[in-house]
Amino acid sequence: MPEDFRVLIVDDDFHVAKLHAAYVDSVAGFLALAPVGSASLALQAIHSLRPDLVLLDVYLPDASGLDLLQQLDVDTMILRAASDTGSLRKAFRHGATVPVLAGRRRAVDIQLRYGTTGRPEHRYSLPGQ
Fold first, then answer.
1. Alpha-carbon separation of residue 47 from 50, 51, 71, 107, 113 (angstroms)
2. Cβ-based neighbour number of residue 44 at 10 Å
3. pLDDT band for position 122 (50/70/90)?
4. What is the pTM of this model?
């Protein structure tokens, strides 16, 4: 039996992070690691836990998630509440696989957006393209 796909959630709002983690854990084949709430903790967790996927918030207390993205060598999905295309373009340029619209009442749909194969499904387009 294959190992679960390990997902690290990086979000400074612990309520939102818990929602994402609960949803990830509800999808067969996926395992949410303990969420972290800052860029510095994310770097530590990525180094020590070696997740297969990072769900990364754009707005963190100690750095921009978009800036952090440039330092990561792991598949990353951007969690974003902002709707500006500049952030989306920067995320794609720095290696984000799929943007995930984050909201207080919407969980991340890992199975549909990332797929159960562990391979990103690049089904996205930027507004105006």
1. 6, 9, 11, 26, 25
2. 12
3. very low
4. 0.71
